[in-house]
Design goal:
Low-confidence stretches: none
Structural class: alpha+beta
Number of helices: 15
Helix content: 55-70%
Distance between the termini: 51 Å
Oligomer: single chain
Radius of gyration: 28 Å
Length: 379
């Protein structure tokens, strides 16, 4: 498996002097077959080598490996063909290891899961992922298979391969707005907003005036939501959302930010939890991209979309929401939901929320390298 190790097997023995004893030790003490033990150790060595490569070299190997004709490569190993020209040593190392691992699989020396784990070690290392991340992704894929919902497919006849979920595991960034439940109290100097979670008065600068708060019906004083946003231009806009009908008192722009924030998060959680078939993902992309292109065409540009007045924003929202209700496939519906979330984020006037949405939804909307430049460096 490691015949093409840089410098040959002698160099391999020098860099990893306990290689043989490790394989035998796993076999003797761990009850692991020698074939599986060899596969595990080969995967560890190859991934370790790739992790320490220059990122540019890793990328070249990854692209070369993706283009290899493995049947031709096998014939070359038997002496019946020429080795591909200008191929890097790391590419030959990985290709040979994958061929030998496949032989072990066909001979019954390792299981299909063993082979998949080995392949994921190699591919993950070539993508620059560390051991912890590769281990997590394998665990996640297993959990998706055991506990996850049925994969999203493009119709009942879709039998294409299923891709793993892509949940967001990091901490949410600090968006440029706040939202919390409040109650209103009257003091000798006027109305005060008190947070319901900790009982502390809200004193941050806001555009909500005493006259605005006077409009809140007395029966709603104990249950309001306060929204405050510092826009990308530095302006502060605020509102209260009150009553069962979610009446907005104050700035509609602040309400739009709150709507964008909850829509982006809910859509991201839904899309990130799903395993999708290849055809299902293609359907999601087609619906999301077609709707996005339509919105940008009507708005003239992404910058114009950001600056649209409230009535124009509502038109986009209502049109997409109606299309979501009429969508005939779950994949098509999700594509429209992703587009709606991206449109809302772009119009949220919050550079941090827009950047977060772009990072989470760009894989559904654009091919790598085709992403709009306007999203690369939000203000």
């Amino acid at each position: 498996m490691l015949l093409f190790y840089p410098g040959g097997v002698k160099n391999l023995a020098r860099n990893y002097p306990n290689l043989g004893s490790a394989i035998d030790g796993n076999f003797d003490a761990g009850g692991i077959s020698q074939g599986r033990s060899a596969l595990l150790i080969a995967g560890s060595i190859i991934s370790n080598e790739f992790e320490h490569l220059d990122p540019n070299d890793r990328d070249v190997i990854r692209r070369q490996l993706g283009k290899i004709d493995f049947e031709q490569f096998k014939r070359t190993l038997r002496g019946n063909g020429q080795r591909p020209q200008d191929i890097m040593g790391g590419t030959s190392l990985a290709a040979l290891a994958l061929v030998m691992a496949e032989i072990e699989l066909k001979n019954g020396e390792v299981s299909e899961d063993d082979f998949k784990n080995f392949a994921s070690e190699v591919s993950g290392a070539l993508q620059g992922k560390g051991f912890a991340q590769r281990s997590y992704e394998r665990t996640r894929d297993t959990m998706d298979e055991v506990l996850g919902p049925p994969p999203l497919r493009d119709g009942e006849d879709d039998a294409s391969d299923v891709l793993p979920s892509q949940r967001y595991l990091g901490e949410l960034p600090d968006f440029n707005g706040t939202e919390c439940k409040v109650c209103i109290t009257f003091t000798p100097t006027g109305f005060a907003l008190i947070r319901k979670d900790d009982g502390v008065e809200i004193v941050e600068r806001r555009s909500l005036t005493q006259k605005d708060i006077e409009k809140v019906p007395l029966e709603d004083w104990k249950d309001c939501r306060f929204v405050n946003l510092r826009t990308r231009s530095g302006e502060i806009v605020s509102c209260l959302i009150v009553g069962e009908e979610s009446e907005v008192i104050g700035s509609k722009r602040a309400f739009w930010w709150a709507l964008a924030k909850v829509t982006v998060r809910m859509t991201d959680v839904h899309a990130g939890d799903l395993r999708m078939s290849v055809h299902g993902l293609a359907r999601v992309h087609a619906e999301a991209r077609a709707m996005w292109d339509t919105v940008i065409e009507r708005s003239s540009s992404i910058e114009q979309l950001r600056e649209e007045p409230m009535y124009a924003r509502s038109i986009h929202y209502d049109v997409i929401s109606n299309m979501i209700k009429k969508a005939e496939s779950e994949a098509g519906k999700l594509g429209l939901e992703i587009c709606r979330a991206m449109v809302l984020a772009t119009q949220s006037e919050d550079a941090a929320l827009e950047a977060f949405a772009f990072e989470r939804f760009k894989r559904f909307l654009w091919r790598p390298g085709e992403e709009p430049q306007e999203f690369y460096a939000p203000e």
